[in-house]
User: Fold these one by one.
Assistant:
Number 1:
Amino acid sequence: MPRAAVVADPDAARLARNASALEEAGFCVTSATDAAGLAALLQDGKPAVIIADASLLPAIGTEAPVLLMVDLDNPAETSARPSGIHDCITKPPAPRELVHRASALIDLVARRNASRQRAEALREQLRLVSAAVRATNDPQEIANHVVAGFGRTFKADHVLLATFEDERVPRITATWDAPGLQPLPPGVLPDGKEAHRTADLLWAGAETMSTDAPETDDPPAEGARTGEGGGTASGLSSTFSTLAVPIGEGNSSLGIIWIAMRDRRRQWSRAELGLIQHVAGNAAYGLIQSHLISSQQQVVKQLQQLDKAKTDFLATVNHELRTPLTSIMAYLDMIQESTEQPVSPEVHQMLDIVVRNTERLRSLIEDMLSVSRNGLDDSLMHFTPVRLGQTLDLVAAALRPLAKLQNVTIEVDPVPEDPEILADEVQLQQVFTNLVSNAIKFTPSGGRIEVGSESHAAEDGTRWATVSVADTGIGISSDEIDHVFTRFYRASNAMSGAIPGTGLGLAITKDIVVRHGGKIDVASTLGAGTTVTVSLPLDADRSRAN
């Protein structure tokens, strides 16, 4: 098809001569004698080439290739360095030279555009490979994506990726073979120490290594080094053209990628090498991250196994402890209540101490049993309407004798309206019993405990009942407050003060609250006291859903 050319020249005779020469060469020519005419022609379409006089330069604003006619005797035209101009020719140009220069300029721009399009397509294909690498944490999948992506993108015959023995990545191998080709036989590509040595050498120099079959005499692309002796790499079959790309991190390599072509040469451009190294870098990062994640998952699995073993042990020990403890408590009751052989006041006082410690031991065993079950079994929880204020009064009444022994005051603020919540009454009583007994235990003589409650609506329209248990006790440091719900955790001041406890009460309390769809928070100031706040949903539907 004829190629479109726009010729613009204020010299009518020169314009006619140039247009005639181009038409004879097969061009479809349109012409203009001034800047306005040139601008109008360029608005109508994009020609294959523009041949314009330098005096019309300001009117030229197009992506089409421009061949500028310049008067060598005019300093203003020869000294100008206009942008967007692809080539210049002396005016008046010889007809044959004009046709040749115009045709060469069109071909040059076409080659550049084709090259740019190929580079964009290559970049997009390898971007998809990098995206696939980032989308998985499986090391083998990462390696498979890389070899398959390189193989299809560069139309290779074989691609191999291998990692070395290294603590940062797992030892894996991935291969890709073009459809219809048999896998590479062993020994064709270097492996083991030779591959490791090659990768270290290339990684240290931030290079790749390309090798051609012996019949090629072409020089290697910039950015690639040839094999030893300018031919093939040590141990590499001479029937292959290959590219070796190191995979590394820091100061050492982690693996190597081989891209191989059978019985044909392959020259690698700088852009191709840069993109290949970029994908190899993504693969190295992905392999390192996936190895770290796998290691962490393995550690978590081991911890879960240890936790299960500990839980099973606790369950067994609890069962073995509860049986004799039940008998002990029964016999103590019989001895204290016996009328036939009453004990002396001194013995009765000692029995009271034994009973209290036995009860403490029973409570400890119950806490440990709850932990051994990993919290409460939902099937064992029985939800019924419960009056919150009534529950708080019952808990306070039951614990006031203990508080009196500690010379601690318990005050329950009056509730204007006693909200009704859907809950397991026994478990809910355990929540507030744990919180108030904790407050008693950690509050010095003469201290005070205040239990308050209120109802409120949240921003999302849900209704909540909030109970706070505030004491004037020893408090918790800011460094330790985040750990108080951890099983078996005890604050340092409780340990140093020899305050008895197992570190299970708050962990069990939180588990019960969460299973009721609620929340629990702790605020404390060391030496000034602690406030624990429990929020429970008032909406029955929400409670049932939780």
Number 2:
Amino acid sequence: MKYLITLAAAIAMPLAAVAAKPGVDAFFDAMAISVPPGQQSQFVVGDNLAGYFEGYTQSHDRGAGYTIKNASVFDGYATFVNGVANDRTRSSEQVLPYGHHVRHAGGALEEMALLSKQHALAIRLSNPDDAILTVQTLFKAPGAIARDGDVVLIAPAGGSGQFTAIAADRPFVVDDALKLRSTHAVRGITVVVAFGDSAAQASERAQALAKADPIGAERKALYDALTKSYLATSDTDYNKALNWAKAASRMFVVEEFGTGIWAGLPWFRDNWGRDTFIALPGTLLVSGQFDEARAVLSNFARYQNLREPRDKEYGRIPNRVSASDKTIYNTVDGTPWMLREAFEYIQYTGDKAFARQMYQLALPYFDGAIANYADKDGLLAHDSADTWMDARIDNQDPWSARGPRAVEIQALWHTALKTGAYLATQAGDHAKARQWNALAGKAQRSFLRLYWDGKVMADRLRDDASRDTKVRPNQLMLVSIPFADFVPPKVQARVTRNAVSELLYPYGIASLSQNDPYFHPRHENPDFHHKDAAYHQGTVWGWNAGFTVTALNKFGYQDLAWKLSQNLGRQILGLGTLGNMSELLDALPGDDGKLKASGTYAQSWSVAEYARNGFQDYVGFRPRLLDNTLAFTPAIPAAWSGFHAALPFGAGDSIEVDFQRVGKRQQWRLRLHGATKRKVAFSILNDDKSRSRLAFELAPGKPATLVTGGGKATVNGKPLALRAQQASYAGDIGELVFQTPKRYRAGDFPMLESKDVLKGIVERKEYR
């Protein structure tokens, strides 16, 4: 299709990788995104502390460089061989999840890596023959420069900020332009640029790293983190995009305000409650980073609003934790998302001890929410801009009012209440468990009556209790958020049909139907409106694709979901910031058919959801360690002939899966690593899109082969009982295809009839 971007040439992972995890070099060779000479493309890597490096291919200093907190501390670098500058604009370059490689015409190789957890970066220049090698470090306004033995020290400009120390693994001389030149002909030199709060700290860090192999160590550490969980399918382009999504997600995990997850770059370098917990499963749970997941949850709990006397936001976790502003709590869904992810963490790990800590968070949260926001129907009321669609005009009226009862908030509220009841039961507080379960039941009964008319799901209830039936993607979260059915599956199926058929383009799902009078075809369109007017009125949000894939896969429409994932993978590998995903896309492609990325150039929940889909929705792995069960609800695309997966859970345990499709049969080879026998439960998709369940026990050291197809199942050749679990809803959903985006013609859209049309509607209180 003309509006799909072209995938840049890349080194593909060999098909043999489906059978086994590759080594370090092969893994990164397969991930490398190649950029031809003359093409400037943005890339970004993080230090997992409080900094990131933004650079551009074929440029020495374009981009923000290395930014720590809000200060740019390093701009870039240039290299020379025998005094002759290497021309990066004529060189082949590869972007990698820790930095980049540049191969010059004469054979010289530049490598740059930002070093995780070090406040440092390393640059290595190699040459095929002995030569005088020079690395020039670039700073916009360096402070006083001095040499102290084997280290070059740079004082903070203006007398405040970070000290810089530069060291190398070879003897060097340095000039006033900060060109470090080897004292004799060599074939390689590694230069480390380190930062610290004092000259001594920076110097010690630089020298220690220069004496080691900093780039090799960074590659190995990143490899270990990215392959703790692993999925390699028969589609090598997807494998590459998936590994980049995992790497990009990991980049946002920082320590600036305690362990947290930045929302996006460059503007959202804060820990946002809602964003953090939407991103957490794809960032830390499917990747097996369970200690970090617990740390994120515990850290946010520290900021819970426990002020006395109690205010309207009592019990909530923050909307945003940042260094520059006071902690704010104006979000209705941050705490429910957190409780959901606390429960999911417990299911992945079996960490029942953590339930006590989360119970202490749940008590004030429900006290405040029930006192201030629960209505007579048991639903959760909220301000019109306190959902994820939170843009306001001059911090006042909402651009896209969704109060006082948005659809996904009720799914989150019900899920939070059920989670709270579990936490209360674990704590022995059966009275609270009964109270919260009863309120969950009331909300569930009220919801269907008030939101669903048998054909259309409301996006919200207005102040006058009327149903707002704008077609938005939020209704799909009725499928993805609850751990058990909040509304009947038949309703979920019809919701999926309604939302997907109206909103889903090949490149993502729109935040509002293109047929709605409030639809804005472009995010940034200053001739007609402020960009926030379009923010949630049609603009495509990358993270929304995640719950769309979840809904499609639940009902057996994984082949359409797979087409979407392939197209999103092309965005990761070739659109905007290489290896990452932007916050937004314009709803409609340009006249040339090209997609336009917008918003932040790298967004945490966008890549996190892409990673989550691979493990939780296609492979379908969702462990339930509370009942010692490794649960699979797979939806394997027809295009996958096989895959290999390593799936971590618990305290260092994992299950390896080798899948192969043979005709209409599916064969699963399962190997359990750990000390405990586990129950394995499958929800198998049948040919008619119904699901059947089966279960068996799996012991460590005793592999099992599950074969399904034709309404039968065997384990190690022995028949296994299949029981009906979910009916087919293919008749309710019908055929699903991508929506065709309209052409951009300003006269075709009511919101572009004149300047600030939507703003006028909102300010006149006419928004419906």
Number 3:
Amino acid sequence: MAKIGVVVKSPSLYYYVFKPFRGVELDVGSFVATEIDGVRVISRVVAIRHRNAVVDPRLIAHFDEESTVKEIKETLGIEEALYYTEAKAVVLGARSGRKILKPQKPVKPLSYVYSTTPEELEQFFAPGEEGTYIPIGKIKGTSIPAYIDAERLVTHHCAILASTGAGKSYLAGVIVERLSALDIPIVVIDPHGEYSSMAVPATEEGKHVSEKVRIFVVGKTDVTHLDQAFKKRYGIPRTYTRIGLNPRSIPLRTLEKILDLLYGLTDAQRRILEEGWQSATSYGERQPLTSVEELIKEVLEGGKHAAPPGFAGEMSLRGLEGRLRALFYTSPVFITRYGETYQGEPIKLIDPEMYLTTPSIHIFDISGLDILDQQLFLAVLLDQLYRVSTLRKNLTTLLIIEEAHNYAPAAGTSVAKSYIAKIAREGRKFGLGLCLITQRPTKLDPDVVSQAMTQIFKRMINPHDLRYVATVAEHLDDPRPLRTLDEAEAVVTGISVPVPLMIVVDQRWTQHGGVTPSIRRQV
């Protein structure tokens, strides 16, 4: 291999600085090699800096006459020596069989730096023998597929973090498409109604993906505008099933939080609710669907013994009754009676067991709901998915949550947060994987995102978010290059890849629904 430079500084095990030889051209992202104890180690160039020794004050002090400058430039002939290039290279590792090993010693100064060949890099980045791998792009600057370990990506959770418009949902779509070939259930929480486009193939491979897409519109919300836009853009109608929640399926603590947040709960009302809700929902895991009036009657009957005596108790009962009725009738996510319809469409109950046992792409369009109803729906759905998974009847499933900072915020309240946290902590044991997608990493609960063992970064500009990335991404040596990534590029770190990868994301197989509208001059 050709020698292209020499190491001049080696501050740590993880990176070194070298001076390229004259005439050598390098780009950020290029791969180079060096040797440690005779073992060839691959590195990636992450920064190139142009230095100029003329700024040394001791030299500047002599620039007081033209003749002196001329002598330095022409007679001594050191002008080129004053201007030189340094490159910083991050150590990736050395290939040993099907594994990549990290060196335990730093590169020695004055070690030679070598060029690499396409064959060497292809062997270095080849997937391991064990595991199930999917390609989601190409290693930047090469034609080598970027493989990730699908099993580790799913079961050990992942996060996609980027600024708005950086291509998060496009990348998520690529991952969903590639995972769908493994015949696992995928559940997508879609707060913008953009994932419905996956029902429309864009390539031959996309036909197999689109056949697996199942779209669910949540609640009694008018989605006519989305349906019209979908048909105008793709030339076919959007097909979906409208679904809702059985009021009896709400966990007690979630119901308490919602009622207290919306209307306030007295201590007496809380005691009545706790007693009455347990009595009304003591039917096992599968709750029957009855009318709201019948449910409220059961709650009040079951909890009235916990009410204070006399007029105070009667007021507490009537107050709780009004709060329950207001919640169940005004929130569009609930089915209030058997056979309920909306705009002529039947509303079906959610079926968590089906979502976890059918290898389809289940897309839940919650775009028509306000944020509180979105949180409420997600809390109930995740609670039921978790309960089903503990029975060990499910296939390994990936749950994708867009705009995750709205449902598991670092500060503030969300009734869905505890359920997201539970799956993040315990879901792996039951085959539930979590993928959190957000444009504001600093707004996402740090305990939740810390469980994401694979982190994928796209363009990020906000300095607060970059500082946050530096604290949570132990595999990312310097987050500043994230500022310059384009929409097609991403950095993948964590346990699903052997080394941090800078990739160019593959093309989608299905249509991408998150395209930013362009400004067009009216004619």
Number 4:
Amino acid sequence: MATKKANTSDFSLYKRKFWQLFAYGFLGVILLFLFASWGFFGKMPSFDDLENPDSNVATEIISSDGVVIGKFYKENRTPVKYEELPQHLVKALVATEDERFYEHSGIDAKGTLRAVIRLGRDGGASTITQQLAKNLFHGEGSKFILFRVIQKVKEWIIAIRLERQYTKQEIIALYLNQVDFVNGAVGIRSAAKIYMNKEPKDLTIEESALFVGMLKNPSLYNPNRKKRAQLVLDRRNTVLGQMEKNGVISEAKKEALKKLPIKLDFRPESHSEGSATYFREYLRDYMKKWVKDHLKEDGTEYDLYRDGLKIYTTIDSKMQQYAEEAVIEHLKNLQKEFFSATKGKENAPFVDITPEQTKQIMMQAKKNSERWRKMDLNGKSEEEILKSFDVPTKMKIFTYEGEKDTLMKPIDSILYYKHMLQTGMMAMEPRSGHIKAWVGGVNYKYFQYDHVGQGARQVGSTFKPFLYATAIEQLNISPCDSIIDSYFTMPKGKWGIDADWSPRNSDGNYRGTITLQKALANSVNTVSAKLIDRVGPQAVVDMAKELGVTSTIPVQPSIALGAVDITVEQMVGAMSTFANQGVYVKPTFIIKIEDKNGVVIDQPIPVTKDVVNKDVAYAVVKLMEGVTTSGTGARLKWGGGGIMQYDYSFGNPIAGKTGTSQNNSDGWFIGMVPNLATGIWVGNEDRAAHFRDTRRGQGATMALPIWGLFMKKCYADSDLDVSKEPFERPDDLKIKVDCWVPKKVVDTTAVPTDEPNMDEFGL
């Protein structure tokens, strides 16, 4: 009997200890959850954190026609709403990652119990909500088992809070917006764009299955890695199997989809590639100043790379594309001509400079190179750095056929790039000032200097319309007034010149009596000299400033021939004034800026100014029309591009002006129709590098063809509605612009001939 009592006593003792241990363990679990929720094991997200998770959203650059043309980001993430997700993507996600997603409240008890019993061999039983909690608030965490347990507890707590805070649909969207799909794609929208070049809503079932399959291990199942093609295909098909198992698709559909290959339209996004790269960089510099002047309500600055701003720009994605295509199409041909023209020439590509000047140019190029910068940072001496430029090195170089791998001495690569022609091109609407296209160079990755907003170059004869506008306004003359094209000398001392000035015409000829319209059409220098002699240089400078030119203009008679450096942006803005009936509208590139919630935080107001009256503006337009009908830009009417033959054959009115600097280092063309003004500059980086002859180095050959190719593409696109109509003629026009009248004849059956009206000879 004593033994029996002892056994009963021992059992009771074990029973009591078991329940004590259970109670302590249960209490410990409760305390663990409480301590975790109170932040004892690290900060837990607050209500505000859950309401507004730090999602590191990219700023989008949006064109006027609604296309995202670029982003500013640390992580390339652009949120998508649940309504924008295809249902087969949502169902594939749930079927593969969390079959009981709609049944639990953040934690799948059945799955968790199975994971505990099997010690995690069949996975960690993380629900979609738990994975979202991990991605949003603490990442992967520690691999140490104790810390891992604490992390899991925090994950459960956050998941439960998320379920209380958001609907199931919102959790799905949040999750897909957070996932890193590698290759710079964070979130499903970036992934769809980079891998498939489409929006999420346009993803097919098999494409959706591919992205869901990547979630298990994005790096391992990276579809852009050709060596893992079979692995990725198998994983996609596993997802299709899960979709069939859960009734999302039929077995027949699954088998049909499994046979499809993986097709990518892989287009990685970067700051140096894609559309409007030069414009995007110009915009970035602008936004760096903007964030300092437009603070948040709490007084802090917006983060351009994390705050998900939406910058609605004036750029038209199609016009931008056509501009970039036109630049490449023409310069690809012109570059071949330049290489051919400089082949075998001493000191090529430089012309008329001394060997010492050439050495200075090359030395400066070496010091500006990335090679010099890196070697200097690594403590290399100047002698060591200079020697390295003569050692053949493997490198990639830019060509118009694509990047080329080659073995080349760095010094030879510098000389190669000195041969490369550069360009700046901008198109804008004269009435609104909206910039529609911006091409700052031929390739941003290799040539980062922006020749639209940064590079001021000598404008040549494209400056002459400013002079003619001044003369028409101040002297009360018209395009039909006549003047004598003859040898002309401005004496020393007049208008401050320190020597006699005798400008000559580019062809060396004098035409005698001609109208002002003919003089501008043929860029007659002697006429320009006579006009500036009448109005004075200061009046012309004042006119240019009123037209929006901010570059420094010397108050000298030589500006009549364009001896002044101005940017493409300023030139197009100034010329547009004439197309806009004398009203200057400052070129603008932003329509509005919104925060990530769609609230408008900035909407720039156009800057306008009346410069000349409608009659004067229209007279200048008619003068510039003469350039394209019978002057240096006439090839736009019948085609051709000088050394290259292009078929333009424009029949509509076009106001334009070519320009060429004296040594052919700068070629310009400004062309306008009523609702679009476009300016182009072409030349080498160094002014000493250029064509040796004017036939190839003039603006009509270097720049005008780009305008023609661009406009031909624009006219072919009916969505753009680029005008072919005449410029609007002012009511009661008081300046004579129709310079040719039929000869009076008695015989009405005779064919009339055109003769200039010689009655007006006021100059």
